[in-house]
């Protein structure tokens, strides 16, 4: 998201379906700033999709979203989009996630839904690009050049760096989740990437690995 926000021709949206998700799903954990998210963001999915369509008439639109925020089993509106699924090894994902939400479930971390969305798009003849976070961080320039080529937009060097402190497009939840990126100036492995996953989350990890493995077989390489 921070990378695409550096483009002059692109509008970035940070998790525009978050309020819709919180209000229309069986959320089992407390999300930081949930009340404010629901009070200030659009909650109607059709209106969110229409807003994205309106913006796309004048700009490229980069929608950074969590897979589980798309509640439908067949979210047909994404068939009109170029879709990219960014994955991370579930052990690292759970270690990071548990710092904010102590006991996440398989539904909370999105890997199951990401796998389902991949399958849905694949069956519709719209196979998405799959990126793996560790590989991307090792060679961001090569990966971004390839991604830009695949979605038919020119690559620009400005996508490789940004100023510390966040961007105006950050969601309300940024203070809870974005500390590392706020302290960054570009793509780099985070110091917390090697933090151990709490042992209590082993059952979630076991379940998540099934879906991660499905997606791992389709990771883009450069």
Main beta sheet: strand number and arrangement?
2 strands, parallel
Shape: globular
Number of strands: 4
Q: What structural class is derived from the secondary structure elements?
A: mainly alpha
Unreliable stretches covering 5 or more consecutive residues: none
Q: What's the number of helices?
A: 12
Residue-averaged pLDDT, rounded? Answer: 95
State Rg.
Answer: 17 Å
Order of strands across the widest beta sheet?
1-2
Explain what you see.
By secondary structure, the chain is mainly alpha-helical. The protein is built from twelve helices and four strands, in the order αβαααββαααβααααα. It has helices spanning 2-5, 18-24, 34-40, 45-56, 90-97, 106-109, 111-123, 133-138, 140-150, 174-177, 179-182, 202-216; strands spanning 10-14, 60-64, 84-87, 129-132. The protein is globular. The protein starts with a helix and ends in a 6-residue tail after the last helix.
Structural key phrases:
12 helices, two-stranded parallel ribbon, 222 residues, mainly alpha
Topology:
Blueprint: H1 2-5, E1 10-14, H2 18-24, H3 34-40, H4 45-56, E2 60-64, E3 84-87, H5 90-97, H6 106-109, H7 111-123, E4 129-132, H8 133-138, H9 140-150, H10 174-177, H11 179-182, H12 202-216
Parallel strand pairs: 1-2, 3-4
In brief:
The chain is mostly helical and 222 residues long. The chain contains twelve helices and four strands, in the order αβαααββαααβααααα.
